[in-house]
From TrEMBL:
TM stretches of this protein: 6-24, 44-65, 182-203, 210-228
Pfam families (alphabetical): Bestrophin-like
Record protein name field: DUF4239 domain-containing protein
Keyword Nucleotide-binding in annotation: no
Keywords attached to this entry: Membrane, Transmembrane, Transmembrane helix
Amino acid sequence: MSEWLVLSIAMASACAVVLIIVVLNNRRVGDDDDPSETPDVIEYMTMMIGVVYAIVLGLAIAGVWEGRSAAQESVRIEAQALHEVKARASVYPAEVRDRIRADVDAYVSHVVNDEWKVMSERNTLTERGTDLLDQVRADVTGYEPKTDHEGQAYQPLVDQVAAADDARSSRGQNAGATMPGVVWFGLIIGALVTVGLIFTLQIRRTFRELLLAGLFSALIAFLLFLIWDFDAPFGRGISATADPFIDTFPGITR
């Protein structure tokens, strides 16, 4: 099911539930009911709970967005490190240089075309990707420099392979959801409480009040959707992309 369809259903359901409850509740209100009798303390508590929940939502959104940004940055670092390996290998003999570049291209092609899909569906890296990167490492470390120029390029090449490996590990760690279940429990219960407090203010069936109640509940649903979508940096609609690999290695296409 599309993420945007999930969002539409969630927002529509939140609006529908609130509006139905308001309409049914007001049908039981007697003619002598006075909405102005709502205690001031209830209004204060409603305001404070709303403020606290808004802060919690803001922190949750900031946290998952930071996780997504970190995931995208790890992809950029990995792609740039592998690009440096290809570029710096130019000082090596043609046979060694071509082997290194071919193995780098094979690894990048696997990441873009195969491993990315596995990360999205299973939240893990592939063994094939690990083997291909190990082959790149073996190509770089297995060659013994013959000249001073090659010797000066050797350690930077090793360092770039290590940087790519570290970024790959970070990418694997960020593949799954990062928001703990207990936080989700708090966010959902908080949403129910915050929306439920609308009814303590004796909301009526005027168009203005119904519209505000519906929009408020839809906003809560939308913010929860954003948190859910950002929570899996590689697995949902607004996710980290493989664009750094595609941009750095123009010959690699999906």
